[in-house]
Design goal:
Strand 3 (about 150-160) and strand 4 form a beta hairpin. It is rod-shaped, with a radius of gyration of 42 Å. The chain is α+β, with helices and mostly antiparallel strands and about 190 residues long. Strands 1-2-4-3 form a 4-stranded antiparallel beta sheet, with helices on one face. Helices cover about 60% and strands about 20% of the residues. It folds into 2 domains: about 1-65; about 75-194, Ribosomal protein S6/Translation elongation factor EF1B (Alpha-Beta Plaits), CATH 3.30.70.60. It has helices spanning about 1-60, 65-85, 90-100, 135-145, 185-194; strands at about 105-110, 125-130, 150-160, 170-180.
Length: about 190
Amino acid sequence: MSGSLAFRMLQRWAPPILGVSAVVASCVYVVTRQSRVDTGIRELEILSATLDQSAGVLEGTVISPGKQKELHRKKAELQARSEDVRKPGLLQAELMQSARNANLEVREILPVAGQSGSTDEVYPTYRVSVAGTYRQIAEYVEACATQRLPARVRRFKINHVLSADGNLTGTLLGEITVEGFSWRELESEGAGNG
């Protein structure tokens, strides 16, 4: 009888014990699973932040194909300018156009024998005589450096223009000596000074 009693008790308590065991096992599984999921989510957040940062760095350093084409075009234009600046007629035409743009009266543009002091390359040098106001002459001097074929000012002198009877006319005469130059020359000078 004691065997059958134990068997009956086992039959009676086995389902609740198995149920409680299943619930405990499920809880343990859920807790460990949740911990693994939380760890995975944190790792993904760190990975996404790292990838975002890397994408930002790449975006700032990688040049798009459109920008590459534009840079190649600008480089070719700059090289063409560097070659054109050695051609006296082209530089003289640029000087004339800049003077016209500044509304100056061009009295004369004469070539001056000279050589660039910092390189062995020879660039055309001109003495430009222009008449106008101080502001117009100043704009012209500034325009010389920024025109398509740039020229640097080597000498600069302003005098009053006198009328036939010796009185001041209010017009100034600017005697400006300019020399063509290459942007590469400026870069090498800047590297030597820096």
